[in-house]
Design goal:
With about 300 residues, the protein is α+β, with helices and mostly antiparallel strands. It contains 9 helices and 11 strands. About 30% of the residues lie in helices and about 15% in strands. Helix 3 runs antiparallel to helix 5 and helix 5 packs antiparallel against helix 7. Bound molecules: adenosine-5'-diphosphate and magnesium ion (MG). It comes from Cryoendolithus antarcticus.
Length: about 300
Amino acid sequence: RESKGKLPRYPGLERYSLVEKMGDGAFSNVYRARDREGQFEEVAIKVVRKFEMNSTQIMRNLDHPNIVKLVEFSESRQYYYIILELCPGGELFHQIVRLTYFSEDLSRHVITQVAKSLEYLHEVAGVVHRDIKPENLLFYPTPFVPTRNPKPKGPEDEDKADEGEFIKGQGAGGIGVVKIADFGLSKVIWDSQTMTPCGTVGYTAPEIVKDERYSKSVDMWALGCVLYTLLCGFPPFYDESIQVLTEKVARGQYTFLSPWWDDISKSAQDLVSHLLTVDPEKRYDIIQFLNHPWIREADEPTYAAH
Ligand code: ADP
Ligand code: MG
């Protein structure tokens, strides 16, 4: 992380003092910053060169507990400044690296929150995110953060699993509130006011209607990749060669690799396979996802006697 002295000064951002650089996005610099005047003491500021951005228009209208809030927006000659609700927990990606993988309970806790925000985006706001991945899932660590794996799986992760303990107790609890960030690639697919596909009224062609469904299914595929990764600690599709990787994805060529998947429930595997389905017509949509038994298990309090 950069030290305070090295942080740049941006014209027009004098009201904030930049504290540290948070993430390195492909298209942006994001800083943690103190706000001397606003409603939030601390915020995240995403600085984007003007020719690289188009997404704040979308974020402005979104209001959901699992979506990072746009607090304010300003600009200078060269930059856009996107002032965001700060997620002090950072990226979910770092938690996966730290914990090796998540227990099924913890995975469910995380993925359900991501799914709730997708439900809102797809069914209420008419927006597809198009860049769902662990780097764009941030969290607000409240009220407790596990620092170790509940159960080590194999000899290879035993030492990692033994690190640390649950801070502030609560055993199988969550990691806090998970929020979707980075609407840089997202797109409005239908007008939430008129409930019609964007730009058309009444005479919508079937391919447009289909198009809308397909674009939502892109997020569902990504949701499947995230869930797979949470459960075992590595992504479903990987190859050092981009060409081979692309082939594998196109064919939907993945496996529940032994021994890592041996102890993961059939129900969780069933859900993953309904998301990593190549045919977008057959792939689960967000409603089917939320109704799957593996997700609904969460409705039952864990202390209930069976
Ligand atoms: P990019 O489009 O460049 O990927 P992101 O919006 O994903 O930009 O931001 C890049 C990184 O900055 C994120 O992956 C995350 O690490 C960090 N970041 C972004 N927004 C916030 C926030 N509100 N709170 C904390 N960290 C953030
Ligand atoms: Mg990003």
